[in-house]
Design brief:
This is Putative Endonuclease III. By secondary structure, the protein is mainly alpha-helical. The protein is 57% helix and 0% strand. The radius of gyration is 22 Å and the shape is globular.
Length: 287
């Protein structure tokens, strides 16, 4: 009798462990049967967009030299601090690139150091970043990040994250109020030079349009899926190019009719070929 109970308990533990592993796998790779994009397809899209747009100069300062990909070289890619990058990305939420840049410049002009920001009245911070939209919410998030940093680390600096693992960085950044997956991924890719693939509105729309994710996909699951499917060495350039293309092209996103793009209607969007002529089934699923 006792032997039977013991075996039953052991079986229940194994089943529980198996279910836990399955849930974790589903979380990390939510569309396991969706086989797009393939590595070759990612490379082809990168090459097509590079030929069309060239590499976006706004991201050039963050680009790692492909001839020197060591960790030592990564740390010298850009002078921007991790904290600067985090606040810049926070200010870019729900606004245009031009407005977010103006907001960051205005903030640094009004408060030259982060110590000045944390000591300032919230209304003063709001006024400094008002041109970026959602000033009250964003000012509160910035104050919270700085206050938490002072409490936890005793100084206003995030450079210690350069020595953390990706999972540790994600956990630390996500603990700050108002910092979501896209912001975390941007800091990972741009400021910490990790192989990550942020999914903003432009990337998300294009991914759905060309069938890289199922029609039912949301942004968070799209982030998980694309980070699994896209080769690490292509992530940075491909992400920057998709973002740039999404801003300029009216043809390859669901909101194309309202987009004020710079690509002429006479020029065929190269990404449409990947939607129409895919070697996979129309759904991209394994058959």
């Amino acid at each position: 009798m006792q032997e039977g109970r013991k075996r039953k308990k052991q079986l229940q533990k194994l089943q529980k462990k198996s279910k836990s592993k399955t849930k974790l796998a589903d979380k990390e790779e939510p569309y396991r049967t969706h086989i797009r994009p393939t590595p070759d397809e990612c490379r082809d899209v990168r090459d097509e967009l590079l030929a069309l747009h060239g590499f976006p100069q706004e991201f050039a300062k963050y680009r790692r030299d492909p001839l020197s990909p060591s960790l030592d070289d990564r740390n010298s890619v850009v002078e921007e601090t991790v904290l600067d990058g985090l606040v810049k990305t926070l200010l870019s939420q729900n606004t245009t690139e031009a407005n977010s840049q103006r907001a960051f410049a205005s903030l640094k002009s009004a408060f030259p150091t982060w110590e000045d920001v944390v000591a300032a009245n919230s209304k003063c911070i709001e006024n400094a970043i008002r041109c970026g939209g959602l000033a009250t919410t964003k000012a509160a998030c910035i104050k919270n990040i700085l206050s938490c940093l002072l409490e936890r680390k005793g100084k206003l600096c995030l450079e210690y994250m350069r020595d953390l693992s990706v999972e540790e960085i994600k956990a630390e950044l996500s603990s700050f109020k108002g910092i979501g997956p896209k912001t975390v991924a941007c800091v990972l890719m741009f400021n910490l030079q990790h192989d990550d693939f942020p999914v903003d509105t432009h990337v998300f729309e294009i991914a759905k349009t060309i069938g890289w994710v199922p029609d039912v996909a949301d942004r968070n699951k799209t982030y998980l899926h694309l980070n699994q499917r896209i080769p690490n060495e292509l992530k940075f350039d491909l992400n920057c190019l998709l973002f740039t293309h999404g801003k300029l092209c009216r043809k390859c996103t669901s909101k194309g009719g309202n987009r004020k793009g710079n690509i002429s209607h006479d020029i065929a969007c190269p990404l449409l070929n990947f939607r129409k002529n895919s070697p996979m089934s129309t759904t991209g699923e394994l058959e």
